[in-house]
């Protein structure tokens, strides 16, 4: 409202301030000016009494007075100096008037300026100083006998008819000035002038109340000619003036002196009348009345305040118009007088007790009053704290404990500890139902805002038992509606509400549980997902105590089991699935949400149980107790159903088991079993050290589960949630019996390796048992074979025999480890994450004894591909003629796929299932790209398959093993014989069968990649546990072939990255490497030769009519660099193994021949792309290779035709010279001997270099640098004469011409 004109009050105050600034040095008019004053008075009386005219007249009079004072000062320069006092703010005040002529003390009127300052301390000090001076003036005035002279001479601006006849002129002026000041909007004038008026009226009793009340009305009169802002300033000025009078205590003193005083009634009526004028005056006017009520006794309230004119009518009409201030005044008056009065009947029922006030009917009548309290937003109306104090007395918090909370969370209206608690809960429930939900939340945004503010006000006194009442269905739905849209007007309000709610929870687990349950119960477990915030997740992460976890689990159980936990509001989803149906296809059962809101909520309950443990940091014993509670819930709700009723009391378990009244859907049962599997797998990972053999049972969650399962299974009134076939039932019983047997055996073994093996086998049996329940009919055969393996491994004699067991007793019985490996592989493809964890644990403890056949069977999986071997024979002939390397390189292959990079592997296995669908950490494969890649595979069916063979005989430790690998690779499309008991190929055959159906091709491809990733995890475990075994070479060669093969690694970027990480971390960069006599040199030679060939392979693109995109070219080049890097790292690793083998020089001749061939190709063929830096690094790490090849390299370097290769070869020669020539004196003779033996070759090389200098300047510089280095070595070894002797005259001239001073110096030294 800056465009509005300033009010008359503010203008007047500003003018007065200017007058004060001038009159600070002015002496109060003396008696000589009596005539003039009288004349002024007469003129004033003739004027209109309108405020604006009075203001203009005062302004004119002040101007005349100012001129008169100035002229008087000029005429009397020798007047005594004015006294100076310190200002309120601590600075020197301007000189003020002295009234010595009248005998009154000085009054410094500049104090009014300080009353308007923003600093509260300055205002307070100014008010105190003003009152102190005025008290002195008044006391002096009262002691004077002749007051007429002072009244005439020192009136300042006071008029005779203002009613303040007993006050000194300065006091009268101050009162008028203060009353006008409270209507000023300048800075903090209202506050400062009201403070001064309060202290002044309370200190000087000569100021009569009737005169003061009349003066307030006269000076702050509101007329019809005033504009809106002007009238508002006057009304606010009245309000502050009346507030000053109420706080001064004068009315209380007046009543104490005269019980029949009319001023209390008059004052109350005036305030009620003022409150009725404008809405913004209501609350402050009532606040002024409340200040007065606090100071008055009960008798004064009954006889004066309640009898005030207009109060009864004001109360009567409050409910219709919606007057929250009338309700506030009634509550405060009733609290003070403690007596029921008819005046309150419309607002407060008689008798006045909380149960009457908070009945639904009465709250409905008060709803208008409470809704209209939004007019003072964003501040909360003063009525609400008063109302909440009545609603939530302090005693509620004292009687609350966790037991009452549990019952109240279950149902609000039952099991209260005492009648007062029940009454408080009932009152609070009615309040929330009628006011919060029925009136505020169903109305405008402002009232919704008010509802959140009121609930936040109630939090400090709110018992946890009342949280379900606060977090009702309507409130939670309102929160979700607001928070689901960030542009919502109430978004920050709802955010703040949740923030304050979380702060109120703090570390109190009872509150935490109540809030989590309240939010999730009415959002069907989807509060975080709908609001897109992490409120519930953060709250659940805050559990730190065992008691808090137990309380949460108990409430989750109640939420799952009790029918009343479903949302009390009608749901728009009423259809449910057939709860009695068995688990069928994945498409029918994957979405638990199809069963409606109830199943959504139950799904959240099941998923939340394990999330408790995620951030929980407890000791092992406490954590185990929490795990047991979770296990019992999952086992009861997931595995069993009651035959009769919904409750079963177990004396053996010492607890009552409950189920929902409605049969749990099979999808929920399946989820419970999956969570149970995950719980067991996590407990197996996090098991603490088992210090004592007899302590195994204490922290063995698997043993506790099997005991619990057996106990429940034996109850006649409880049955499994699904009926099993005879085969599955038999498998279930045999798995249970085998686990018991292994458990006994484990306890007998104590602390040993066998005990660990038994332990991991037990957990695998438990996981398999649960898998039988999840997917009946699929695991019977695998379970039977696993049981046989357990029996053979540990000679368990008390296991019931199974069909087909005797078949293993023949001569052709496969080895135990082969059967175990095959069984584990057969379980891998369709296993869940917990099942896979159990398989990996078993493999970790048994992989030391794995046979070569078992290892090759695993590696065979990595070679599987959808590329058909249509041209096997032709490819074999080509491979034999070209001696194709084991890595199966297809030279003209255009790489199609995303760009790959070297990513480090972590110790933990990645989630293969996530990797396949494209959400893995290493790389995300786009579905479109996947289909495109698959389409290209289909189009290339006629291309040659590289992974069907390729020299696998060189990969194994022996030739026989390599032959087996080759044979295994050839039958990629054929299944194994049934008698071989290797169902892994059955699974692979099914995948290939699915591949023939184009509609299922992508799914089959994903399954194969998933299977390979899981096998890779086992291979990684094997490499970690057996880094020094010769079989590492077999694993390395097969994995390298899989990585290099475009049809295998490129099918999935994740698969390629996984293979790369295993090769780098577990093989090439491992601390240990294959050692011992079993490591054959022929195998190492073959691997070395083929890796060097791979490092020499040029980058080629497939010839195509269509130019490949830049993205494909970049991906192709990146992959080529990764393959080259793998070949180089592999070469270094193989040479390290060869060095460790301590082979004789004759045995290493083949290695040298391989390097000679590489150097020949490097120097003579453009097709060789091997890097000179790579060769230099080989000579640097393995100097013996360079030493043996030194002469050969000198000879070939001089005869090479390519200038570029010749110059690069000089670096290789220089690198060898570094290791040949020793700087020590002890090695000088050996170095001299070696150099002598190669001196002729060196001379010939230098002769060729200087006579055929390169054309490019940079290459010429390299040649001169090399020759200078050689000449320096010759000079240091004193071989100058021999060197020069081998050079003919032409060479001498060429050396002098090209090498210049370097060669001349060499000749000088020789002379």
From TrEMBL:
UniProt feature, compositional bias: Acidic residues: 935-945, 967-978
Region (Disordered): 1-101, 564-590, 890-978
Swiss-Prot/TrEMBL GO biological process terms: regulation of DNA-templated transcription
Record-linked InterPro entries: ARM-type_fold, DNA_pol_V/MYBBP1A
Keyword terms of this UniProt record: Nucleus
GO molecular function per UniProt: DNA binding
Location of this chain's protein in the cell: Nucleus
Similarity section: Belongs to the MYBBP1A family.
Name assigned to this protein: DNA polymerase V
């Amino acid at each position: 409202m800056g465009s509005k004109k300033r009010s008359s009050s503010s203008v007047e105050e500003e003018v007065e301030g200017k007058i004060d600034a001038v009159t600070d040095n002015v002496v109060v008019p003396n008696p000589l000016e009596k005539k003039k004053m009288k004349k002024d008075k007469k003129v004033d009386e003739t004027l209109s009494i309108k405020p604006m005219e009075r203001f203009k007249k005062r302004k004119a009079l002040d101007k005349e007075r100012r001129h008169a004072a100035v002229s008087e000062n000029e005429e009397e320069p020798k007047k005594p100096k004015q006294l100076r006092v310190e200002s309120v703010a601590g600075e020197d005040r301007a000189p003020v008037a002295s009234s010595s002529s009248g005998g009154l003390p000085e009054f410094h009127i500049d104090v009014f300026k300080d009353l308007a300052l923003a600093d509260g301390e300055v205002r307070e000090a100014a008010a105190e100083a003003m009152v102190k001076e005025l008290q002195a003036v008044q006391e002096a005035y009262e002691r004077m006998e002749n007051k007429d002279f002072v009244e005439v001479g020192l009136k300042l601006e006071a008029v005779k008819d203002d009613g303040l006849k007993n006050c000194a002129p300065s006091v009268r002026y101050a009162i008028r000035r203060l009353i006008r000041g409270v209507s000023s909007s300048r800075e903090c004038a209202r506050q400062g002038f009201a403070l001064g008026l309060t202290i002044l009226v309370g200190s000087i009793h000569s100021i009569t109340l009737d005169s003061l009340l009349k003066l307030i009305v006269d000076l702050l009169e509101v007329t019809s000619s005033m504009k809106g802002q002007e009238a508002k300033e006057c009304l606010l000025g009245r309000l502050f003036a009346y507030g000053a009078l109420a706080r001064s205590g004068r009315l209380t003193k007046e009543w104490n002196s005269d019980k029949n005083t009319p001023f209390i009634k008059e004052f109350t009526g005036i305030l009620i009348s003022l409150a009725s004028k404008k809405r913004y005056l209501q609350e402050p006017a009532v606040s002024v009345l409340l200040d007065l009520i606090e100071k008055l006794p009960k008798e004064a309230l009954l006889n004066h305040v309640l009898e005030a004119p207009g109060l009864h009518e004001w109360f009567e009409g409050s409910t219709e118009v919606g007057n929250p201030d009338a309700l506030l005044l009634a509550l405060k008056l009733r609290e003070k007088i403690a007596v029921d009065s008819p005046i309150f009947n419309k607002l407060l029922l008689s008798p006045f007790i909380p149960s009457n006030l908070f009945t639904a009917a009465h709250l409905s009548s008060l709803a208008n009053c409470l809704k209209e309290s939004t007019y003072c937003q964003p501040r909360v109306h003063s009525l609400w704290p008063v109302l909440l104090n009545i609603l939530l007395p302090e005693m509620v918090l004292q009687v609350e404990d966790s037991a009452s909370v549990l019952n109240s969370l279950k149902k609000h209206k039952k099991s209260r500890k005492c009648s007062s608690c029940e009454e408080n809960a009932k009152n609070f429930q009615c309040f929330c139902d009628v006011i919060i939900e029925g009136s505020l939340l169903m109305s405008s945004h402002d009232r919704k805002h008010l509802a959140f503010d009121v609930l936040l006000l109630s939090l400090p006194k709110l018992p946890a038992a009342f949280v379900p009442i606060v977090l009702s269905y309507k409130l939670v739905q309102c929160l979700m509606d607001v928070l689901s849209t960030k542009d919502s007007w109430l978004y920050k309000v709802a955010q703040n509400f949740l923030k304050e709610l979380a702060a109120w929870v703090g570390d109190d687990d009872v509150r935490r549980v109540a809030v989590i349950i309240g939010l999730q119960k009415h959002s069907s477990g989807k509060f975080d997902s709908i609001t897109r915030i992490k409120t519930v997740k953060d709250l659940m992460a805050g559990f730190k105590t065992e008691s808090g976890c137990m309380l949460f689990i108990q409430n989750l159980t109640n939420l799952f089991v009790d029918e009343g936990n479903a949302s009390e509001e009608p749901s728009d989803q009423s259809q449910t699935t057939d709860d009695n149906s068995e688990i069928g296809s994945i498409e029918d059962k994957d979405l638990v949400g199809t069963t409606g809101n109830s199943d959504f909520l139950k799904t959240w309950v099941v998923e939340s149980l394990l999330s408790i443990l995620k951030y929980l940091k407890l000791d092992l014993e406490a954590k185990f107790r929490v795990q047991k509670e979770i296990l019992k819930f999952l086992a009861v709700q997931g595995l069993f159903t009651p035959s009769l009723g919904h409750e079963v009391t177990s004396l053996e378990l010492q607890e009552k088991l409950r189920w929902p009244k409605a049969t749990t859907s099979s999808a929920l049962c399946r989820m419970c079993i999956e969570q149970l599997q995950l719980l067991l797998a996590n407990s197996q990972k996090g098991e603490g050290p088992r210090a004592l053999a007899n302590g195994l049972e204490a922290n063995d969650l698997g043993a506790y589960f099997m005991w619990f399962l057996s106990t429940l299974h034996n109850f006649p009134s409880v049955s499994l949630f699904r009926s099993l076939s005879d085969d599955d039932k038999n498998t279930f019983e045999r798995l249970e019996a085998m686990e018991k047997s292994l458990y006994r055996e484990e306890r007998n073994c104590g602390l040993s390796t066998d005990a660990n093996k038994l332990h991991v086998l037990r957990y695998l049996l438990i996981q398999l048992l649960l898998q039988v329940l999840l997917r009946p009919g699929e695991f019977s055969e695998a379970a039977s074979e696993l049981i046989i393996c357990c029996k053979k491994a540990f000679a368990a004699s008390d296991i019931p025999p199974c069909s087909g067991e005797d078949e293993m007793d023949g001569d052709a019985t496969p080895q135990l480890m082969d059967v175990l490996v095959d069984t584990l592989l057969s379980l891998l493809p369709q296993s869940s994450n917990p099942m896979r964890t159990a398989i990996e644990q078993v493999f970790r403890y048994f992989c030391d004894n794995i046979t070569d056949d078992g290892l090759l069977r695993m590696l065979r999986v990595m070679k599987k591909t959808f590329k058909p071997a249509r041209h096997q024979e032709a490819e074999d002939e080509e491979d034999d003629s070209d001696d194709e390397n084991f890595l199966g390189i297809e030279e003209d292959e255009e790489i199609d796929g995303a760009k790959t990079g070297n990513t480090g592997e972590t110790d933990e296995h990645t989630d293969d299932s996530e990797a396949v669908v494209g959400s893995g950490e290493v790389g995300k494969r786009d579905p479109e790209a996947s289909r495109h890649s698959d389409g290209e595979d289909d189009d290339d069916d006629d291309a040659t398959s590289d992974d069907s063979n390729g020299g696998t005989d060189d990969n194994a430790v022996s030739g026989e093993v390599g032959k087996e690998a080759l044979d295994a690779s050839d039958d990629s499309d054929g299944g194994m014989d049934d008698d071989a008991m290797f169902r892994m190929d059955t699974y692979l055959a099914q995948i290939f069968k699915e591949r023939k159906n184009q509609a299922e091709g992508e799914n089959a491809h994903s399954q194969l990649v998933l299977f390979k990733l899981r096998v890779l995890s086992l291979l990684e475990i094997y490499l970690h546990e057996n880094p020094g075994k010769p079989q590492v070479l077999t694993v390395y060669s097969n994995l390298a072939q899989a990585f290099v093969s475009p049809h295998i690694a490129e099918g999935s970027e994740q698969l390629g990255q996984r293979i790369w990480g295993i090769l780098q971390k577990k093989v090439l960069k491992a601390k240990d490497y294959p050692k011992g006599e079993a490591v054959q040199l022929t195998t190492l030679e073959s691997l070395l030769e083929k890796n060097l060939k791979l490092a020499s392979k040029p980058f080629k693109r497939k010839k195509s009519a269509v130019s490949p995109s830049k993205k494909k070219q970049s991906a192709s080049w990146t992959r080529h660099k990764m393959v080259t890097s793998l070949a180089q790292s592999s070469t270094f690793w193989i040479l390290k193994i060869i060095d460790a083998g301590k082979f004789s020089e004759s045995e290493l001749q083949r290695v040298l021949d391989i390097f000679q061939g590489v150097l020949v190709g490097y120097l003579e063929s453009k097709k060789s792309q091997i890097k000179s830096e790579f060769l230099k690094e080989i000579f640097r790490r393995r100097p013996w290779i360079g030493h043996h090849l030194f002469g050969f390299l000198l000879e070939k370097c001089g005869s090479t035709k390519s200038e570029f290769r010749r110059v690069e070869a000089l670096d290789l020669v220089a690198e060898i010279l570094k290791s040949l020539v020793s700087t020590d004196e002890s090695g000088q003779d050996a170095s001299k001997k070696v150099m002598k033996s190669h001196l002729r070759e060196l001379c010939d090389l230098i002769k060729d270099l200087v006579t055929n200098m390169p054309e490019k300047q940079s290459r010429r510089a390299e040649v001169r640098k090399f020759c200078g280095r050689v000449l320096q070595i010759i000079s240091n070894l004193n071989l100058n004469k021999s060197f020069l002797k081998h050079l003919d005259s032409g060479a001498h001239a060429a050396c002098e011409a090209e090498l210049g001073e370097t060669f001349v110096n060499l000749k000088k030294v020789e002379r």
